[in-house]
Each structure stands twice: as structure tokens, then as C-alpha cells.
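Protocol step 4 of 5: obtain the predicted structure for the target chain.
Materials: sequence only (see below). No template structures provided, no constraints applied. The aim of this step is simply to have a reference model before the mutagenesis design in step 5. Sequence pasted as it appears in the construct record:
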Amino acid sequence: MKPLVVYVAMAADLIHPGHINILKIARELADTLEAKEGVKGEVVLGLLTDKAIASYKRLPYMNYTQRYEVISHLKEVDRVIPQDSLSYENNIRALQPRYVVHGDDWKSGAQSKTRQNVIDTLHELGCGELIEPNYTVGISSTQLNLDARAIGISTNARLSLLRRLINAKTPLRICETHSAISALIAQNSFIEVDGKKLEFDGFWSSSLTDSTSRGKPDIEAVELTSRLNTINEIFEVTSKPLIYDADTGGKLEHFVFSVRSLERTGVSAVIIEDKTGLKKNSLLGNEVEQTQEDIEVFCEKIKAGKNAQITSEFMIIARIESLILEKGQEDALKRAFAYIEAGADGIMIHSRQKTPNEVLAFMKAFRIRDSKTPVIVVPTSFNEITAKELGEAGVNVVIYANHLLRASFIAMKEVVEGILRYDRSKEIETKCMSVKEILSLIPGTI
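Step 4 output (C-alpha cells):
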């Protein structure tokens, strides 16, 4: 006869006494069923996949395999199966459990809809009952996560986050940061949408904003060592992955050393564009002279970079300028597949059009032939389309590439002009964050 199932679902990233309490209750229920009915009672744990967890909160510290290894060795658990979404419904229908066990903390808030779906599914199937033990006082996964984040993140753990995130959710939202304080703002900002936390997934180190924040032109004037100093300052106070804008990557021999330096620092990916010569901003298009690199030469640069990296997690992403330079979709697609063949871990397709039409056309044609390679876009010009809509079109990563720096220019200009106009600072105080708020944002100050 089939075992009598008691079902529990967990992320099981940071195991604490509250989890153990739930599992002990599930074990007791299974043993009682077995004693009463003479049929084996089985505790089945639905382990949420990375994708399921990322759909409503941050990616877990441990990946699914690591969490499985931990949870499957607990004596209270008989079997571990994946739960591929926040909803329990598919596993309940497959298992027909006698009991589903979850703490009573989900009766309100973000998981209340999930709870109701469990009740409705059990009622429809007529197979079991929801058991809700009291929430364990004095312990919180949320607080443990905050404490862990305050301690920091290792270089290797941060480096590998981008690949894990790409595999777990679509699309990723990446925010430009040009300083430690801008990165802190980007990391700590979030909103609630339909009970789910929506936040940025990582940072973009832009050559444009890094050079502009130093008062220098956007012509690769800031060398790698200086930019790495900024990245190290960002990494000291944050825990999210970072993508590095390397412009053309420079000469092949120089790019090899850049890859090693970035990887050693903990950067998750580097993006290089297929242009040659002195850097000119892509949004200028054909208004200035810009030359696209030969496909074969750019492929050799990609291969050299891939051969130079030490870890398998580091990503080299090829940025295609064909649409910017009005060479058409066929040239863009030809280059995309050549760069992937050369070893590129992802493709960035760029456009300066005011609508997303040519990017969407590229995505449609690209995804017919390649459903897996990550695609990155920067919708600075075509800014009416949402990240969600881009994700639905097959885009994996959306980068907001220069907005924090641009916003800071306006804010600072208004403040300095206001002080001059009124000959005092009283009138512009509403445009400034309080010193107390600033201090509370910086770890270790309060």
C-alpha cells in the first residue's frame, strides 16, 4: 500500500528551531497515522527550487543541491521532492497527503493566498487537512538573513550569484551604481507588488557613469585599477552581483588581464562591445565616426578571455553594435551566433531607437534558433517598455545603465541653485535626505 503522506514545504536555506519544530510535528503525525492504520507514515518535504524562491524574495544563499543535501539528512524527513513554485497545488495533487503542515504565520500577508489555495485544493480532493502549529517565537528567517547580509558575502559566493539568478528568474533588473552610497541605495530599495518583494537583482558598473562621476570624458579615460577601487568600495557594503562595462575590452592581451582582475575581485560578468578604436558613446550612433570590429577578431578576444578565467561562474557577454550602426538585423544575428560559438556566455543587443521594435524583432528571430543563451538589453532610449514585457519577449537581464548618476545631477543642481537664490538652506531642506536617514543607511553607523 502507498504510504500515508504528511507534506511540508520549505526553502530550508537557513535552518532554525522553527523549522525543526514543524518537522517534529510532521514526524509525530506520520508516526500516529502509521500506528492507527498499519500503513507506513511518510514525511515528504517539498524543497522549494531556486526559481520558486526567487519568485517572491531574494535568492537563497545555498543552491537547491546544497539545500537538498542538508535537509535530506534530517531524521524527521523520509523523502525530499522539488516544489517548483510558491503554490503547493501540484505536489498536493500528486501526493494526496493526509496532512499538510505549515506554521500559522502565513494566515496574513504575502502567503495568505498560497494558504487559501492549499485549503481549497485539499477540500476539492477530500484527501487531507491543514495543520498550523503556532509560530515559533524568538526566531525569524528574515532577521537571520539580515544578520547574514550584515556580515557580508564571500568573493566566490557573490561571483556565482549572477548565473544562479539568470537560471532562477526572468528578467533580472540591474541598476547602475557609481559609488558605494549609490550601491547602498540600489540594494536597500524595494517595493511590494501583489504581496511580493520587488527589488534590483544586482549592479552595473558603467564606464560612462564612472568616468562622468570623476569629471572625465567617456573615452575609456579611467583605467581598470581606479575602477576596481570603486568596485571594492561597493563590495565592502553590499552583497549583490555586479556586471562590469569594459567598453571594447581594449587589446586582446590587455583584456586577458582584465578578466583575471575582475574575476579575482568577485565581479560576476564583463560586457565588451564589438567596436574598435577610441571609444564613442553608442547612443551617438552614426553622428560620430564609429567602427565595428571584424567578427573573427572579436571572436578571438572572446576566446582569449574565456581561456583566461579561472572559475566556470564568471561570464563574458558580447555586446552587438549592429543596430546602433544601422547595419541591420541579419548582421546582428550573424554576429550573435558567431560570438556564442566563440564562447560568449551571453549576448547584449543594443539600440538607440525610441521604440523597442527592432530589439523585439531581434529577440523573436534569435529565440527561434537559441532558447537558452542569456540576452541582455539596456532600454535607455526605448524606455516605455517594461522589464516584465522584455522578459516575456525572452530577455534575461534588463540594465538601467545611467539613471542614478543622471538623477543626482538634477538633485544637486536644484540644491546649489536654491542655496544661492535664497542665500540660505532652509528652503531646500525638503529636497535633501536627513542626516539621520543617511546614517541609518550606512552599516555600522548606528
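Step 4 remarks: The two ends are 60 Å apart (CA to CA). The chain has a mean pLDDT of 91.
Proceed to step 5.
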